[in-house]
Amino acid sequence: MMDSRSSSYQFKAIEANFRQLKEQIIFLRNAKSNRLWFHQFDKFGDKAMESLQNTLISLGRDRRFSAATSLFADNAYLMKEAIVFYHRYDRQMLGAAVSCSFIAWIALVISFLNSSSQRISYTLLVPHRVFVTPFLCSIAFSIYCSLSFSQTVYIILPIYLISILENHSGLMKYVRERSVTFFAQPDWLNKLVSKELFAKPFLTCIGFIITVGIFVLTFVDRAFLAAVFVLLMFLPQFYSDAIVSYWSKTWMLTCLILCIFPFLPAVGVSTQLPLCILSPLITAAICHRLSRRPCLARLQELLKIMVYVHSTVAVFLAVVNYGFDKPPSIARWVSWVSIPLSLVAPSLLSGPYILDRLVAYSLCFYVPYTLLSISYESMFVIVFLFLLAMFVRFEFGHLSDVELFQLKIDSTKVATGGYVEVRRTVVCVSFVLCTLFGTGNFASINSFNPSTLNLFISVFSPFIMAILLILKLLIPILLVSSAFASIIRFDPESIQRLCCFSLIFTDFMSMCFFHQLKDDGSWLDIGMSISQFIVSMCISLALLVLLSISSHLMAFDLLRKAATPRLSQEIESVNRSLLSDDEAA
């Protein structure tokens, strides 16, 4: 009796569940069924649903509740798949619209980069009259498909962006004029398949696709970062200076060494304190060796100070980690003080020269980074900084060592072409990815261990810990930004152009990650797909902010600012004495 009653309750429950699923399927299907190209879910259509309903009713009437329950359990997953199918019915169409928006936006950025005028007028945002018909057609299509407001925006946005592109560049007029001129030539067919018109753009597109593909795969698996280093190995081939040929083998060897790090376990899996202690000793030895070179006499004082500082950091790490079970309070005070000192000390210890500031900021920022390290990441930064230094030398290959050493921060910017800007952009994005994924997966905070902060904080404080982790991630990127800001001579226009070129690459990456977004599976998979998309979208914006910060940091001179009021006071006192002498006369 009890079994019969429980079976009856189970049947009523599955019947109610079936009706709920059926109502959802009918509601979602009716929203799309009025379209000409509509097709039902193949595995579970209307006939299958009606047949299942009739069978369940028949089994319930015959009081065969267990058979009805098993029948519903066997078909419930099909009903859920039908709901997902109708829910995602417009995914491909909207995804294509978003891809068109990305491509139109990238084309608009390229148009602004190639434009000599930087002024933006109101008429630029007014849609071109040629696009009135596509606008009306897209709106009518959205109404016909019963799309929501946000989906309608996705459909209209690429048309609007193309309209702005036409207003800015006059693309249709340009294509028409070039086509008439080209086809008017008698040998236009031979030129169509020539190297200049076909082969070179084709190879450029292939190279661009391969580069973006490697960048995207780096987000998926950090082992693909080795492919980025392999890509960077060919960088000396794009320079014609003699100094680049001299350093090319060293550059390739450094890239090969860096290829090892992506295959190591992510930082946080294990603790390797000897490497953390060894890394500042290595930098101290390098500073000691460089301080004895006569050509670096101007940096001799800075390098000697850094020898003592980095040696002290190594001893400090050894004593705190091996001499105490828990870092004392004085150790935390010292660790916290190292952060503001690394910002202020370079302007005090170095002169207003590009090379001096780069060396000073690299060595000073390395101190808090070492204190935040628990594994091989500090060793990675040493090798990476050496690679970054060689790249800076490559970019100043037209200068001799003496001229580079005497190059001041306020020196005049040298004009560059689009080829040089593209080359710098590829290297810049590559370096940013190297700093993000060289020691762990930036897109997942799970790869970082809070134990890296034991020298800074003793209690669990998520907000402070997050700030310190972000600081640890941003220090290498800030050094990369400082190097590139020095290369483009701290020019705001050049910074904007570099970020716009970076935006082209990162937007293509974001378009790839957009189509990889997940709304099913584990929470980790969903979160990883979202974080990859957000990080790729924010790279160019972060570069713009960090390049601006780096420019101000590199140009900041505390001694000069302190001397300016003193000098003005002396001038004022001299003027007063002269005035008193005139009055006395």
TrEMBL record:
Keywords: Endoplasmic reticulum, GPI-anchor biosynthesis, Membrane, Transferase, Transmembrane, Transmembrane helix. The keyword Ribonucleoprotein does not apply. InterPro entries: GPI_EtnP_transferase_1, GPI_EtnP_transferase_1_C. One of its GO terms (cellular component) is endoplasmic reticulum membrane. One of its GO terms (molecular function) is mannose-ethanolamine phosphotransferase activity. Its EC number is 2.-.-.-. Pfam families: PigN. The keyword Transferase applies. Its main location: endoplasmic reticulum. It is found in: Endoplasmic reticulum membrane. It is a multi-pass membrane protein. Pathway: Glycolipid biosynthesis; glycosylphosphatidylinositol-anchor biosynthesis. The chain crosses the membrane at residues 93-113, 133-162, 197-217, 223-239, 246-265, 302-324, 330-351, 425-443, 463-486, 498-517, 529-556. GO terms for biological process: GPI anchor biosynthetic process. It comes from the Eukaryota. Ethanolamine phosphate transferase involved in glycosylphosphatidylinositol-anchor biosynthesis. Transfers ethanolamine phosphate to the first alpha-1,4-linked mannose of the glycosylphosphatidylinositol precursor of GPI-anchor. Belongs to the PIGG/PIGN/PIGO family. PIGN subfamily. PANTHER family: GPI ETHANOLAMINE PHOSPHATE TRANSFERASE 1, PHOSPHATIDYLINOSITOL GLYCAN, CLASS N. This is GPI ethanolamine phosphate transferase 1. It comes from Caenorhabditis briggsae. The lineage of its organism: Eukaryota, Metazoa, Ecdysozoa, Nematoda, Chromadorea.
